[in-house]
């Protein structure tokens, strides 16, 4: 199994947010789930939002993935 902890944006309708200052890309939770599904390589075992994270930063979600 794999565990990933990306920052995620709350604006699901946008899919992702690009920061041109540091060339980063922050995906929404919905977009992340679509990527996992579209890959056909993994099964999502569990997902949870990290608690007690600073409110002025993007949320961090934990995804546990199992190879298919």
Report on this model:
With 68 residues, the chain is α+β, with helices and mostly antiparallel strands. The protein is 16% helix and 47% strand. The protein is built from 1 helix and 6 strands. It has one helix at 29-39, and strands at residues 2-4, 7-9, 16-19, 24-28, 42-49, 59-67. Strands 1, 2, 3, 4, 5 and 6 form a 6-stranded mixed beta sheet that branches. Strand 3 (16-19) and strand 4 form a beta hairpin. The longest helix has 11 residues, at 29-39. The protein is globular. The model has no long low-confidence stretch (mean pLDDT 91).
Most strands sheet: 6 strands, mixed
Poorly predicted tracts of residues: none
State the total count of DSSP E strands: 6
Mean pLDDT score: 91
Helix amount, in percent? 10-25%
Order of helices and strands: EEEEHEE
